[in-house]
Each structure stands twice: as C-alpha cells, then as structure tokens.
Specification:
Largest sheet: 5 strands, mixed
Radius of gyration: 12 Å
Number of helices: 4
Strand content: 15-25%
CATH topology: Nonspecific Lipid-transfer Protein, Chain A
Length: 104
C-alpha cells in the first residue's frame, strides 16, 4: 500500500509558490507522501519526486492541513511556524526567501 500525496496540499502548493527562491524544498505532511518544490526554476516546480541532480535544502513538516494553511501567505506561514504547527529542518535561510501567496 503506497502513501498518496495530500490532495489539498498539492493544490495549494501548485497555486502558492509565486517566485523562485533558489533552493529545493520538501513538504513532508504527516501520513501523506512528500511533495518537492524546486525553487530554482521559474515558476517553481511542484512534483512528487525529488528533482534530478538536486540537493535537498530544507524540509517543512506538519499535518497536511497545517502545511496548506501555512502556504496561504508569508504572514500565515510565520504564524504556523512560531506556533509550532509547522516545523523546519536543514537550511532555514530558505524560509526567508519564500514569497508565498496566490500566483498572479
């Protein structure tokens, strides 16, 4: 039995990463398959597999609904991170480069 990606998190991710951020990010929701965000390209690419020949720079973890809510805007992300609903591992400087919100 394979773990499927969270549908809501996938939809939100595809709509929210607006600009490149020069890194590879993994969204790791509890009880769902991870999503990879390649922020080295314009627009950032969302996939269920790691980008080829890429080093993982940062991991965001949390419940799927917490991650989806956090991706709504930079302010929502900050609130989720400070409250502990979303945690980060590895290169935390990536978080400062994220510009979240609906794509124009």
């Amino acid at each position: 039995m394979s773990v499927e990606p969270d549908k809501k998190l996938t939809e939100v991710s595809e709509k929210t990463f607006a600009t490149p951020f020069g890194a590879v990010l993994m969204l790791e929701p509890e009880d769902a398959a991870p999503l990879w965000v390649d922020g080295r390209v314009q627009p950032p690419a969302i996939s269920m597999k790691a980008p080829q020949n890429a080093k993982l720079d940062c991991i965001l973890r949390g419940r799927p609904e917490s991650l989806a809510r956090a991706l709504a805007s930079n302010r929502a992300f900050e609130s989720s991170f400070v409250s502990g609903r979303v945690t980060a591992a590895d290169d935390m400087s990536v978080l400062a480069r994220l510009e979240l919100g609906p794509k124009a």
